[in-house]
Recover the amino acids of this structure.
């Protein structure tokens, strides 16, 4: 049997750098290696000896696409270690800002990075030539997300107004109120875009995933909740490391997340949706239904639809929070450093982002463990690839390559997070 | 002296003016300082504050709860209103046969500056002179449509030295009304015909001689409380010491951050830049505050004339205290003390002037 | 009714059109320009205009043409950066903005009966050319006219044809000197200060009026040397350069001691500023 | 004139500076109208070879392979512009330059032998000639746009070489250090962010890196007077621009 080899040196439209090796011999998929070779930046090591209050700003630099996730999880971890309760007003403002990140990141990914896959185009610029309205709507929606982060966080990438315990300064009510009309527009626009994407031609695929996401009794989880799995686990954020682990794989700079029993699992929109659909707003549920999403959706190619449903929800949620906005006064709660360990977890757009810090009595970090979403998904991405390649062997090399890239982009993988240029080399016999 | 009146509560005047449609700008509480800003509600007028000022230090703290004007000058004078940090000069549009230039104009509503300290009255007059000589009508136009309600200082900050600059603590330059805080209220003095008109419809009781005297005494007391005094012959002295090693010594402490120039109510320097649209069709010329502390300020033939901090500090101080006299017929310093308070390194203009004057 | 706040007309450029772009040296061009509408203010020798290249910026450029020639306004510009580069690149028919004229002129009309000595270093000849042309137009008013031109190398000598004309016609006495000779150069070599004596030949130093333009160090050394030779310090003028933004004395950039170069200069009488030029980084 | 061909490159970084380009939502279509994007992997799978008129480079050099790649990019680019603190000063990851690499690898990876990186995280200018730099962690969208607009107009971009304090004062923000005693790197930090931190009452944390000629020694004296201990002063400078000489030297003085 001859080997078929397809090599793609750079997977585009992902955040970071990675590679993929696939070897197919005699119709059998022999090797699937999703490699992340973005140079490691050693954040966990760099945090040692830093003041715990610096953790949010430093870890924010892990990822420019979802800094709010890092800031939030890090803040929560330190707050937990120091026994600090934030006020409901501060919590609401955090969630509001986080909605901004969801909108921004999801729209960037869905409309600008992932949609081209379905349209057979290279980029959003090419879309703007065939469907300018889609692009202008997407840009406006994305801007809405950024505006939310800017008004609250001071800046969209690496916000500056956040701190352990809350915020430096509470935004004026007038600034929040000014966002209301655009949020109302955003709800409808997100729904329209979801329905537009629902007309894409989705490859048939399904997987019996182990979904892992935060769950919250009242809300669709964004900034807080307990960790649950589709296999029945329901644990506090603190128990994460007891059930999940990271292993190092020779070919990748990122650690791979697995359940302690060794199985791969999935975090991100499909998982959140599977475990929390009931807590979506009725209107968002309706959009999910109108898009043809199942109550538990197992086709990873449809994650783009879940993202847009979540954008709609984030707009609705932001509208609700903005209407109810009361500037937290004081904008942050006082802190008293003490020795201890704290953990924090929030739903980054790509899935749960877990932080654990051990802090000494001077308030300095002794050890830090950060588990970003993409490294958790890495084994699952490989499993998806293997399955999809097996089902797509009839495709010629170019089409197979496109399909593989699409599988990876289903995850909106933030390789920078995982530590990261994707190189794809498919060898097949 | 013309008639003086007694007023118990300044908000009553503010109410009158606001309802008559004036835009009132007064020092308001902004974050941790008092800053002139648009007043919409007389109750927003801060009361019961005082300030603690020292080189590199300002704290707005609770004071006598009855007092309106114990906190004196804050980080900004009235400069940002009369000589704004940024202004569009004109815009140009490229057409078929060249480009067309459209000057920018701006509306300035009828405005009352409420609470202008005597040093700032002087600062306004000095900046007005700069722009008058430069033939820039904008400052004058704004000023002509502005009524000024001065507040005489019954208390000085530790950094104030207006007495030695002959600009305060009692109003000496043009104002329409002047207020002085006295027991139980304010003494109101009329400084111009416009000032008389501003009181129209409000029959204020005439102030008693005792009240008038009390005001004068308070101003006098403020003057004598000032610990700093500018050396009298500093203007001439600075001409003689351009090579003094003390400039280097200051430079070792100076951050060349330009705060002193930005807070100084008379500093007027600006820069102009183009802003262009991505399609290359339109260009705008914007003017904005600049500072003799910025490296580009003296850029010439590939490098700055004043590259050392010592030269830049010398330029600032010499211009302020000396060459201003030759240029505009007065000192460029009014003694407000802002550059001392708001220098993050706590460099004290008066002390440095004193050090340079020593060898005299 | 309150007047709208306007920007001063002095800050508003008038539109000019390039009549001719004449290359002088590898990086120097002379633009001949005319107003798109309205009349031309040719200014006086020594004054300068603020030239604006669309979307790039505005810079000070001296008037370098014949003050009595109304057919066009000449500016000789060296390409040293973005704006000067954009101006040098303007072709015939292109438009530019102009504000001016600004500043003090060379005090030619006060020098009747005197020996005029023009000293130009490098591009300093451009602002002096206007004055030379004016002086030549009133030739009989002066006892003599000399021109000493220094350049870095023979290829850097500005207006060579015109210089040859002037010297050939005997209207003025020309001395040329270069810092670095190249093979074939038969003229003088050395900085201008070493040539002053020759330039002054046949003149009573006390009757000499010197008009100097060039790099600051060159001007300073020339004037000090001339003083030593007996040329009165009150009969020497130099043209100063400082960063300039507004040209109306309100941007502060061009301050040179108590003077605003844009308003009190660029032409200064040497004795007024000699002391100041001694000060480092002033 | 032909549209200039633009490329965007990534080295060790968080992608935030590239994202800032995509965050120019209102101007993005105008940008695309004015320039030709020839290589921008994060945004497009259409990859064109050089030469490029302008290359924007994000990220710092941390691996041997990257140290080679940057030379190829330089060779293919007329103008090479670094974007952000990583490319300009080594980024937050340059924090490790003062620590033993082995310890760090051990702190993060169970099998350290598998990790191949250089000892230090270095800015692009340590490897190739850089024509212009846009500072910030992340860059400012306004400055990015200004740079592109200026490049198109043939103008010198307006990237002021002044301290953050100047932005503070133009914005009308009362100095947090003077009015509040809040430690602030503003006086030694280059302006350009848009006065973000002081405007919310927070001290500038230096994400635009040191201003030309930063007098950190004098600032530290002031920080000391505000009651900060050596460790805290060093930590202030050891941030996103810890690799910039002015900051690293000053931090080292306080160890
Ligand atoms: C009164 C006066 C007359 C001048 N006459 C001439 C002339 O006839 N021919 C000629 O070629 N040049 C002349 N110059 C110098 C000319 O103004 C500068 O070469 C020009 O400003 C450089 O601008 P740039 O943008 O091309 O270069 P850059 O080096 O990029 O300069 C950037 C900016 O700095 C300022 N700047 C830099 N150098 C100078 C300078 N020397 N003077 C003033 N501002 C400066 C300008 O604002 C300029 O836009 C004159 C300068 C002055 C002050
Ligand atoms: S120099 Fe200082 S004291 Fe004098 S007016 Fe300016 S800021 Fe006030
Ligand atoms: S004197 Fe003070 S305020 Fe002025 S530049 Fe120096 S350090 Fe800054
Ligand atoms: S707050 Fe910081 S940046 Fe602003 S003026 Fe003060 S020291 Fe400078």
């Amino acid at each position: 049997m001859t080997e078929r080899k397809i090599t793609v040196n750079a997977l585009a439209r992902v955040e970071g750098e990675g590679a993929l090796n696939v070897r197919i011999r005699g119709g059998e998929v022999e090797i699937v290696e999703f490699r992340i070779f973005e140079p490691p930046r050693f954040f966990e090591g760099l945090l040692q000896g830093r003041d715990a209050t610096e953790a949010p700003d430093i870890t924010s630099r892990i990822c420019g696409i979802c800094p709010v996730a890092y800031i939030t999880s890090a803040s929560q971890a330190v707050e937990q270690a120091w026994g600090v309760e934030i006020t409901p007003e501060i919590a609401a403002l955090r969630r509001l800002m986080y909605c901004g990140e969801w909108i921004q990141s999801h729209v960037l990914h869905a409309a600008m990075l992932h949609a081209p896959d379905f349209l057979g185009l290279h980029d959003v610029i090419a879309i703007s030539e065939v469907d300018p309205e889609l692009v202008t709507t997407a840009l406006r929606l994305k801007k809405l997300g950024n505006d939310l982060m800017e008004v609250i966080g001071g800046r969209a990438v690496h916000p500056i107004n956040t701190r352990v315990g809350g915020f430096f300064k509470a935004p004026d009510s007038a600034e929040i109120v000014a966002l209301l009309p655009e949020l109302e527009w955003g709800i409808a626009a997100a729904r329209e875009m979801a329905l537009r994407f629902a007309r894409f031609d989705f490859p048939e695929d399904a997987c019996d995933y182990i979904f892992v996401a935060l769950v919250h009794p009242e809300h669709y989880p964004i900034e807080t909740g307990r960790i649950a799995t589709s296999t029945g686990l329901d644990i506090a954020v603190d128990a994460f490391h007891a059930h999940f682990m990271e292993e190092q794989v020779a070919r990748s700079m990122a650690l791979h997340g697995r359940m302690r029993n060794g199985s791969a699992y999935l975090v991100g929109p499909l998982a959140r949706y599977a475990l929390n659909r009931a807590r979506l707003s009725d209107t968002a549920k309706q959009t999910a239904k109108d898009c043809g999403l199942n109550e538990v959706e197992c086709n990873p190619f449809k994650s783009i639809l879940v993202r847009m449903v979540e954008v709609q929800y984030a707009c609705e949620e932001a509208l609700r929070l903005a209407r109810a906005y009361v500037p937290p006064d004081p904008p942050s709660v006082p802190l008293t450093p003490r020795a201890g360990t704290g953990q924090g977890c929030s739903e980054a757009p790509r899935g749960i982002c877990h932080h654990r810090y051990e802090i000494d009595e001077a308030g300095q970090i002794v050890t830090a463990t950060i588990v970003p979403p993409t490294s958790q998904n890495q084994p699952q991405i490989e499993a998806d690839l293997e399955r999809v390649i097996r089902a797509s062997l009839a495709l010629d090399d170019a089409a197979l390559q496109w399909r593989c890239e699409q599988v990876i982009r289903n995850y909106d993988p933030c390789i920078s997070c995982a530590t990261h240029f994707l190189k794809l080399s498919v060898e097949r016999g | 002296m013309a008639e003086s009146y007694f007023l118990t509560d300044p908000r009553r005047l503010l109410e009158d003016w606001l309802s008559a449609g004036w835009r009132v700008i007064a020092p308001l509480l902004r974050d941790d300082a008092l800053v002139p800003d648009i007043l919409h509600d007389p109750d927003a007028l801060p009361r019961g504050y005082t300030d603690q000022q020292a080189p590199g230090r300002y704290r707005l703290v609770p004071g006598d709860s009855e007092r309106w004007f114990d906190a004196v000058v804050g980080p900004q004078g009235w400069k940002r209103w009369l000589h704004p940090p940024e202004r569009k000069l004109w815009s140009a549009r490229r057409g078929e046969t060249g480009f067309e230039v459209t000057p920018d104009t701006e509306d300035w509503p009828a405005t009352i500056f409420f609470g202008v300290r005597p040093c700032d009255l002087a600062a306004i007059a000095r900046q007005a002179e700069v722009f008058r000589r430069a033939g820039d009508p904008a400052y004058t136009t704004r000023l002509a449509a502005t009524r000024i309600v001065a507040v005489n200082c019954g208390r000085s900050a530790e950094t104030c030295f207006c007495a030695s600059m002959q600009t305060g603590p009692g109003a000496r330059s043009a104002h329409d009304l002047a207020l002085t805080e006295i027991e139980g209220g304010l003494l109101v003095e009329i400084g111009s015909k416009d000032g008389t008109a501003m009181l129209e419809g409000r029959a204020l009781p005439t102030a008693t001689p005792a009240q008038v005297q009390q005001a004068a005494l308070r101003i006098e007391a403020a003057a004598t409380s000032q610990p700093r005094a500018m050396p009298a012959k500093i203007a001439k002295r600075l001409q003689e010491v351009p090579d003094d090693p003390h400039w280097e010594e200051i430079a070792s402490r100076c951050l060349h951050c330009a705060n002193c120039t930005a807070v100084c109510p008379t500093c007027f320097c600006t820069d102009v830049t183009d802003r262009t649209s991505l399609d290359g069709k339109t260009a705008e010329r914007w003017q904005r505050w600049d500072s003799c502390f910025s490296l580009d300020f003296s850029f010439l033939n590939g490098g700055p004339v004043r590259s050392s901090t010592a030269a830049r500090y010398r330029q600032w101080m010499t211009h302020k205290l000396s060459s201003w006299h030759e240029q505009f017929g007065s000192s460029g310093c009014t003694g407000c003390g802002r550059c001392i308070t708001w220098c993050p390194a706590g460099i004290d203009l008066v002390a440095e002037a004193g050090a340079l004057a020593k060898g005299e | 009714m309150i007047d709208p706040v306007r920007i001063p007309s002095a800050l508003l450029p008038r539109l000019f059109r390039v009549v001719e772009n004449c290359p002088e040296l590898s990086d120097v061009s002379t633009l001949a320009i005319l107003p798109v509408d309205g009349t031309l203010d040719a200014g006086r020798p020594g004054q300068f205009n603020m030239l604006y290249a669309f979307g790039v910026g505005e810079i000070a450029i001296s008037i370098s043409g014949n003050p009595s020639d109304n057919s066009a306004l000449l500016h000789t510009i060296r390409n040293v950066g973005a704006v000067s580069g954009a101006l040098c690149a303007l072709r015939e028919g292109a438009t530019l903005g102009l504000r001016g004229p600004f500043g003090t002129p060379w005090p030619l009309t006060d020098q009747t009966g005197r020996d005029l000595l023009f000293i130009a270093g490098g591009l300093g000849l451009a602002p002096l050319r206007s004055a030379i042309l004016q002086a030549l137009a009133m030739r009989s008013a002066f006892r003599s006219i000399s021109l000493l031109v220094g350049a870095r190398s023979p290829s850097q000598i500005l207006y060579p044809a015109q210089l040859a004309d002037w010297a050939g016609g005997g209207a003025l006495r020309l001395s040329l000197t270069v810092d670095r000779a190249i093979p074939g150069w038969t003229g003088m070599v050395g900085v201008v200060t070493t040539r002053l004596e020759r330039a002054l030949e046949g003149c009573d130093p006390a009757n000499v009026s010197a008009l100097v333009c060039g790099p600051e160090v060159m001007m300073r050394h020339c004037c000090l040397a001339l003083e030593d030779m007996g040329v009165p310090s009150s009969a020497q003028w130099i043209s100063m350069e400082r960063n300039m933004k507004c040209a109306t004395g309100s941007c502060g950039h061009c301050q040179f001691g108590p003077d605003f170069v844009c308003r009190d200069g660029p032409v200064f009488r040497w004795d007024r500023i000699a002391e100041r030029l001694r000060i480092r980084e002033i | 004139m032909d549209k200039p061909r633009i490329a965007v490159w990534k080295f060790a970084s968080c992608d935030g500076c590239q994202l800032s380009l995509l965050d120019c939502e209102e101007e993005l279509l105008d940008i695309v109208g004015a320039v030709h994007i020839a290589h921008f992997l994060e945004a497009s799978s259409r990859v064109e070879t050089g030469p490029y008129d302008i290359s924007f480079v994000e990220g710092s050099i941390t691996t041997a392979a990257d140290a080679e790649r940057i030379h190829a990019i330089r060779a293919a680019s007329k103008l090479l512009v670094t974007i952000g603190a990583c490319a300009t000063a080594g980024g937050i990851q340059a924090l490790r330059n003062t620590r033993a690499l082995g310890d760090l690898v051990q702190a993060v990876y169970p099998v350290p032998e598998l990790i191949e990186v250089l000892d230090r995280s270095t800015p692009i200018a340590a490897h190739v000639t850089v024509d212009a730099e846009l500072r910030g962690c992340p860059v400012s969208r306004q400055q990015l746009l200004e740079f592109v607009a200026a490049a198109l107009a043939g103008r010198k971009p307006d990237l002021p070489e002044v301290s953050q304090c100047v932005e503070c004062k133009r914005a009308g923000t009362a100095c947090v250090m003077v009015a509040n005693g809040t430690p602030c790197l503003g006086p030694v930090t280059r302006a350009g962010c848009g006065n973000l931190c002081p405007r919310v009452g927070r001290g500038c944390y230096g994400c635009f890196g040191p201003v030309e000629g930063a007098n950190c020694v004098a600032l530290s004296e002031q920080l000391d007077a505000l009651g900060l201990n050596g460790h805290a002063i060093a930590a202030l400078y050891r941030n996103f621009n810890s690799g910039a000489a002015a900051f690293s030297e000053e931090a080292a003085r306080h160890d």
Remarks:
- The longest helix of chain C spans residues 125-137.
- The interface with chain D takes residues 55-57, 81-82, 85-86 of chain C (CB under 8 Å).
